[in-house]
Amino acid sequence: MPLFEYECRRCHSRFELLIRGGDAPECPLCHSRDLDRQLGVPAAHVQGGGPRGAELPVCAPAPTGGCGAPWCGTGGCDR
Questions:
Q1: Phi, psi angles (nearest 5°) of residue 36
Q2: Cα angle for residues 8, 11, 13 (degrees, 5° grid)
Q3: Angstrom distance (rounded) from CA 77 to CA 69
Q4: Which helix (H) or strand (E) covers residue 17, if one does?
Q5: Which of 19, 33, 34, 58 has the fewest CB atoms within 10 Å, i.e. is most exposed?
Q6: Structural contact between residues 58 and 45, judged by C-beta atoms closer than 8 angstroms
Q7: What is the 3-state secondary structure (H, E, C) of the chain?
Q8: What pLDDT digit, counting tens, does each position of 11-60 carry?
Q9: Bridge-based pairing state of the strands 35-38 and 14-18
């Protein structure tokens, strides 16, 4: 069951809804069905407990150096 983000065209409220099957989304404030679906940010499961809390592994900076190959970019190939 996907979680979608919406903005109501009538009252301009923004909200998330869990949509099941053929359910039609409705604004929780004014009950309008005239909605715009927004682009949402996907959630990622992470393991927490570090000194700074849970961090996404993709947020860590790439290591410097690398092998020097053109496809290595910033040196993130770990060679």
A1: -110, 125
A2: 55
A3: 9
A4: strand 14-18
A5: 58
A6: no
A7: CCEEEEEECCCCCEEEEECCCCCCCCCCCCCCCCEEEECCCCCCCCCCCCCCCCCCHHHCCCCCCCCCCHHHCCCCCCC
A8: 999 999 888 888 889 999 999 999 999 877 666 655 555 555 555 555 55
A9: unpaired
For the chain, the residue count is 79
Residue 6: how many other CB atoms lie within 10 Å: 20
**At residue 31, what is the residue type?**
H
pTM above threshold 0.90: no
What are the structural domains of the chain?
A: 1-41 (2.20.28)
